[in-house]
Amino acid sequence: MNASNHTDRSMQNATRAAKYCTAPAVRSRRRLISRLLATPERLESRALLAVAPLPLPVQSLDGTGNNLAHPEWGSAGVDLLRLSPAAYADGVSAPSGADRPSARVVSNALSQNPAGGITNDREFSAMVYAWGQFLDHDIGLTGTASPRERFSIAVPAGDPSFDPSGTGVMTIPLSRSAYDPLTGTASGNPRQQTNSITAFIDGSQVYGSDATRAAALRTFSGGQLKTSEGNLLPRNTAGLANANDAHVVPDGELFLAGDVRANENPELCSLQTVFVREHNRLAAAAAVANPSWTDEQLYQHARRLVIAELQTITYNEFLPALLGANTPATAALRSYRGYQPNVNPGIATEFSTGAFRFGHSMLGDDIEFLDNEGNTVRAPMELRDAFFNTPVLSETGIDPVLKYLASVRAQEIDTKVVDDVRDFLFGLPGQGGFDLAALNIQRGRDHGLADFNTVRAAYGLPRVTSFAQITSDPAVQQSLQATYGTVDKVDLWAGGLAEKHLPGSSLGATFTRIIVDQFRRLRDGDRYWYQNVLPDAVARSVQATTLADVIRRNTGLTNLQPDVFLFRASIGGTVFADRNGDGVRQPVEAGLAAAVTLVSASGVTVASTRADARGGFSFGRLDLGSYRVVVTPAGGGAAVTSRIVTVTKGGENRGLDVGLAAAPPVAPKPPVAPKPPTAGPGAPLPRSAAFAALASGLSAASAVSVPTGAPRR
User: What is the DSSP annotation of 119-161?
Assistant: First the structure.
């Protein structure tokens, strides 16, 4: 549900599932690499499934061997990269931030959400944060250190949620992250946390990052992945490690996927499910076209194409929705120049612990369930009740959740976070509840992240010298000033979210720089990137695939806008002079300026505007629902109400033309003859004056205009 991630509690529980958590364990697997690289994979065109397969080396599950010169780059269990100076309190491993306010104090000052929230101004959908989390579970997971190292968050006395009795001794529990034991020994070798899954966009959240989990997900027949009743994810009958932080359902009722966090919420689980279905669809099609293929060939074929789809959707839809379609950041990620073996694709801690947690501010306070036409089919589920509560999908299926994600606009990316994750994450305060904003800040300190200004400098951006250079919002400036005192102590996560968005984007300069760097390295440092390994025809076919396509192919949903990462719905039309009264605009019927009001089906006014000189009007930023327009003639008269228009998906709803009755033609007034000059009582009119009066009357008559469409007499 949150774009970064996993929550930190999930990371702690997931440690038990990570078999390759230390650098020594990674090094012990080097001898396997040459054998892995020698195994051929048969791959044929996705567009023409019967074409001769192309031998390619199998992409390892744990990421080893992707880079031939550096086999461990991007693999499971390696250290997170650090692109800015470590800022541990002792220069080695002690958490940073001792000279800053408690993370809960920062959260209270910056992240309390206003009533009703703040909808984003670029109209990206909730699918952005859902895909962000789904993607995050493909590229990063840091577990909990063993033995545990407590690093709890101090709660200010009288905190209304966590210390209502004013004891002053309450804390929010947290444990420090897993790290490479060969690090943290001296100032020249500071502690480095590890990534227990592969860094590559390689579908590890679908297939797993180790052989045991991958095997548990397979049927070993026809290349298929296991499913359960309703074509949902399989149940965790083998008892593999699975995160279940909320404990609202028994472990045995949870689903099993490639990542231990798959059950974190119904939205994430729905995306997990749709790509298992996509894998099985591709494998089944390949089996029909190639009946001699083995289970392994079919599995690797479908896996290769699913990975390619994940890559193209991320770069062609998700990142442009976030960074802006026509921005320098998106342009930088649009240009692919081939595999670069000198590029390390590893995950940077500034990315995973800071920038890619932007999505936590995008969350709404519930999950809705909608049918194909956007109608509610089940009561909404409050977000606080949705964590690790995926059995609801057995009731509803995944279609209503995916329709919802594509059909509502997410909250703005800013410092604000809904109460459901700021006070009630995994339970009530004091009963398992957490503050996700505070956890993000505390996790950055645990990892020894440098302050916002120092990270900016490390990524080639100028340091800021005032809070006004971070944000133009006076209220946020004041909150930052009151909380930190100086721009040189601001935590990276807080500063990055407070930063003014770049033009056309939903992120500021700092998070943009970090995210572009990471996604450029993930692509350029991946030898198996789809544009590098797939035949041109197959790559083009994959490149044309959208998330909407994948959803339509694997669910009953058909009524989706082409780009489900954006929800831009509008209604427009023309006010015209309906001279023949048929209600249909004819070419000769001119547009009219008029006052136009948009009302909901229940008659509530939604917005008002004026039709332009040609009669054109448009209303944007609309939600799902039914609407009418009410047109009031410019010169007065009775208002006219249009037919109903129902918004069932994103897109333009044009052609709502409203005709106003044409005013009847005004008959010309008869000419008024001028009074004759006075010549005394009974005196005849002079001849010249009589002719002048007659001429005047004829001129006045000929000057009268005939209204358009009126008969001439």
Answer: B-TT-BBTHHHHHHHHHHHHH----B-SS--B-PEEPPTT-TT
> DSSP states of 650-698 as a string?
SEEE----EEEEPPPPPPPPPP-PPPPPP-STTPPPPHHHHHHHHHHHH
453 within 8 A of 490, measured Cβ to Cβ? yes
| Distance (Å, whole) CA 370 – CA 647 | 13
Contact 346, 246 (CB under 8 A): no
**pTM, 2 dp:** 0.86
CA pair distance 706, 704, nearest whole angstrom: 7
> Is residue 77 left, alpha or beta, with left meaning phi > 0 and alpha meaning psi from -120 to 50?
left
Q: How many CB atoms lie within 10 A of CB 146?
A: 11
340, two tokens: 């670069």
Count of beta carbons in the 10 Å neighbourhood of residue 640: 18
The neighbour count for residue 668, using CB atoms within 10 Å, is 14
Taking CA 411 as the corner, what is the angle to CA 459 and CA 202, rounded to the nearest 5 degrees?
Answer: 55
The residue assigned the tokens 């809070």 is 467
Decide: 429 and 374 in contact? Cβ < 8 Å.
no
Residues catalogued as catalytic: 137
Question: How far is CA 599 from each of CA 271, 413, 549, rounded to the nearest angstrom?
Answer: 35, 29, 33
Instruction: Tell me which DSSP letter residue 552 carries.
Output: H
594-603 per-residue burial string, b: 16 or more CB within 10 A, e: under 16: bbbbbbeeee
Task: Please give the structure tokens belonging to residue 473.
Answer: 């919002």
The domain defined by 569-661 folds into Immunoglobulin-like (2.60.40)
Ramachandran quadrant class, 678 (left: phi over 0; alpha: psi -120 to 50; beta: rest): beta
- Residue whose C-alpha is closest to residue 193's, from 20, 12, 4, 446: 446
What residue ranges do the domains of the chain occupy?
8-226+275-381+395-460+510-554, 569-661, 669-713
Which candidate, 473, 477, 475, 496, places its Cα nearest to that of 485?
A: 477
The predicted structure's pLDDT at residue 424: 73
Per-position b or e across 570-583, b if 16+ CB within 10 A of its CB: ebbbbbbbbbeeee
Residue 394 has pLDDT above 60, yes or no: yes
Which residues is 283 bridged to in the sheet? none
How far apart are the C-alpha atoms of 638 and 641, rounded to whole Å?
Answer: 10
d(CA 503, CA 659): 40
Residue 428 confidence (pLDDT) above 80: no
pLDDT > 90: percent of the chain: 79
The dihedral over CA atoms of 496, 84, 136, 246, expressed in degrees to the nearest 10, equals: -80
CATH architecture of 8-226+275-381+395-460+510-554: Orthogonal Bundle (1.10)
% residues pLDDT > 70 (the chain): 84
For residue range 350-362, list pLDDT tens digits in order.
999 999 999 999 9
Query: How high is the pLDDT of residue 634?
Result: 85
Complete DSSP assignment for 527-539 = TT-HHHHS-HHHH
Please list the residues that pair with 653 across neighbouring strands. 571
Which residues have CB under 8 Å from 551's CB, separation 6+? 274, 402, 406, 557, 560, 564
For residue 290 the two structure tokens come to 């190639």
- Give Cα separations from 256 to 163, 202, 205, 289 (angstroms): 37, 18, 10, 30
Query: Smallest Cα–Cα separation from 100: which of 508, 510, 499, 450?
Result: 450
Taking only the tens place, the pLDDT of each residue in 567-618 is 999 999 999 999 999 999 999 999 999 999 999 989 999 999 999 999 999 9
Does the pLDDT at position 25 exceed 90?
no
Residues 627 and 571: beta-carbon distance below 8 Å: yes
Please, are residues 550 and 278 in contact by the beta-carbon 8 Å criterion?
Answer: yes
